[in-house]
């Protein structure tokens, strides 16, 4: 199960593409020759407007289009206690009109211009974006700034939208054995009402309890200029862009950043062993183990990049330790490892496996944990493993420049959780600076000492095996 942010997903996609297309001798060379000055990935310009809004711009002339991404530094992790799903519910209601745009008209206007738009809610942010022809930046800037400043949130549209969200939950979660398992596992590991243990879409009973006043208050409290980030990229001259940004977005009322006030991880895992049998399961079982882990914003932040490298060498593709031991060893169909240092507050480091149908679950769990123990008992990975992981993770960095949405997703996501622009612009250099000893330290701190939970999703009638720990 991957809960990576968009920046990490782009890193992984770029690395996979690079490994598939670059010759072996290219991967064997240092990613940056000695003496060559590191260049930023995007060359973004970052300013803070007088009202507190942080704005980043990346000029991109590859096509006559522009992408505008607006982020609020609040996601599902900021939902009020007992009201999980408020941030996501409000995301839906943001399409219900503003002073200059009628309800439902936002997306229709974008479509008439030949563009596309959408929105998303994650644990850490709520984002809204539009891709349009470059000359239409003024239009989407006006519309987006208008709803950020004064979304209508009509009371008579709350109930119909609640039904849409409940249907979304039914389709994406309740109808999926895996989705229900992953949701239950997170609640077991963090606590059902801990910000990290609540589903972003919300628990069904709490979605039903959200009121119009809850939505209005969340918008009033969180959608402030100082609590938002705007990132734009495309074929627009820099001077023209900043004129539009100051005219449209500079008109937002000033407002300060809003503290997230997230609770610390639980000292003890509420339910360290979680299993679920589902009669609908027709495919393979799933095994998970997750450890509480620091990020670049919380805990031992210096372990962030070393944990990224550890994730890759442990479960990042065909050359990883888990793939070699379980997939090549004939025990599992697939394996993986998940971790992302770009998180607001604490996060988790996870490994997973899908056993072959003919293989007993206990053999898979034993093999997985044996690999973790081998890593820890051996004092961490080898120098060669670390070097290989870093080469693979950074070799495809330039491919991230090709997608129009890459810069605003990576930059906006980082800025919205409080990381500096340099975290994105120079992440290949930051990874190349990671040493074997740092990865070994990170492995011991998290895999060797941090609280953890494990879980099994199994077909009906198949008992969960006894737990195995490293």
From TrEMBL:
Keywords: Hydrolase, Metalloprotease, Protease, Signal. GO terms for molecular function: metal ion binding; metalloendopeptidase activity. Residues 54-194 form the Peptidase M16 N-terminal domain. SUPFAM superfamilies: LuxS/MPP-like metallohydrolase. One of its GO terms (biological process) is proteolysis. The keyword Hydrolase applies. Residues 210-393 form the Peptidase M16 C-terminal domain. Residues 252-276 are annotated as: Disordered. The keyword Transport does not apply. Pfam families: Peptidase_M16 (PF00675), Peptidase_M16_C (PF05193). Belongs to the peptidase M16 family. This is Insulinase family protein. It comes from Falsiroseomonas bella.
């Amino acid at each position: 199960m991957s809960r990576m942010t968009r920046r990490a997903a782009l890193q992984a996609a770029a690395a996979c593409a690079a490994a598939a297309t670059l010759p072996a001798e290219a991967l064997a060379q240092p990613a940056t020759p000695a003496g060559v000055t590191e260049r930023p990935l995007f060359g973004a310009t970052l300013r803070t407007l007088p009202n507190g809004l942080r704005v980043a711009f990346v000029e991109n002339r590859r096509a006559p289009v522009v992408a505008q991404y607006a982020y609020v530094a609040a996601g599902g992790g900021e939902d009020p206690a007992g009201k999980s799903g408020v941030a996501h519910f409000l995301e839906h209601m943001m399409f219900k009109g503003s002073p200059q745009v009628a309800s439902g008209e936002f997306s229709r206007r974008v479509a008439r211009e030949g563009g596309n738009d959408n929105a998303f809610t994650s644990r850490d942010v709520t984002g809204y974006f539009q891709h349009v022809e470059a000359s239409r930046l003024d239009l989407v800037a006006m519309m987006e700034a208008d709803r950020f400043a004064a979304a209508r949130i009509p009371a008579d549209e709350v109930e119909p939208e609640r039904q849409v969200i409940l249907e979304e939950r039914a389709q994406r979660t309740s109808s999926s054995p895996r989705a229900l398992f992953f949701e239950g596992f997170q609640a077991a590991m963090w606590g059902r009402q801990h910000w990290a243990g609540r589903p972003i879409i919300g628990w069904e009973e709490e979605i039903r309890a959200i009121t119009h006043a809850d939505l209005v208050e969340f918008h009033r409290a969180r959608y402030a200029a100082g609590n938002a980030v705007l990132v734009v990229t495309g074929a627009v001259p820099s001077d023209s862009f900043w004129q539009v940004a100051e005219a449209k977005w500079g008109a937002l009322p000033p407002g300060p950043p809003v503290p997230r006030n997230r609770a610390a991880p639980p000292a003890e895992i509420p339910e360290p062993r979680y299993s679920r049998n589902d009669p609908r399961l027709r495919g393979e079982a799933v095994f998970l183990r997750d450890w509480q882990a620091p990020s670049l914003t919380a805990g031992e932040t210096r372990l962030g990049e070393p944990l990224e490298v550890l994730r890759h060498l442990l479960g990042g593709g065909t050359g990883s330790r888990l793939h070699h031991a379980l997939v090549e060893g004939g025990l599992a169909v697939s394996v993986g490892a998940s971790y992302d240092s770009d998180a607001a507050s604490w996060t988790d480091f996870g490994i997973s496996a899908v056993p072959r149908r003919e293989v007993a679950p206990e053999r898979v769990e034993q093999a997985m944990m044996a690999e973790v123990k081998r890593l820890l008992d051996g004092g961490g990975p080898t120098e060669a493993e670390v070097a290989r992981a870093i080469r693979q993770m950074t070799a495809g960095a330039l491919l991230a420049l090709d997608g129009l949405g890459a810069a605003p997703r990576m930059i906006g996501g980082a800025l919205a959780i409080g990381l500096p622009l340099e975290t994105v612009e120079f992440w290949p250099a930051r990874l190349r600076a990671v040493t074997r000893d740092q990865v070994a330290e990170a492995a011991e701190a998290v895999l060797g000492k941090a609280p953890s939970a494990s879980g099994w999703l199994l077909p009906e009638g198949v008992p969960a095996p006894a737990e195995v720990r490293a």
